[in-house]
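>> received
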Amino acid sequence: MPSAIEQIVDTYVRLKNRRGLDALMMHRQRLAVDLKSRSGYDFSLPIGQVDKEIAIIEAGLSRLKSPNPAEA
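>> returned
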């Protein structure tokens, strides 16, 4: 079963909503920077999750740019 972020990204790609994907990417990148700057607690698990989500969003952006509509 696809994760929530995968479903969201798939929907944005299907709707060709680049602005939504860009906003989602900016949010996750800010979250990653914030988590990486904190100390006093082991944030490795949430950082890893956010990094995975960023990779999923990047893949969605690549699919959106793809010239072959069958790949999107």
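>> Helices lie at 4-14, 18-37, 44-65.
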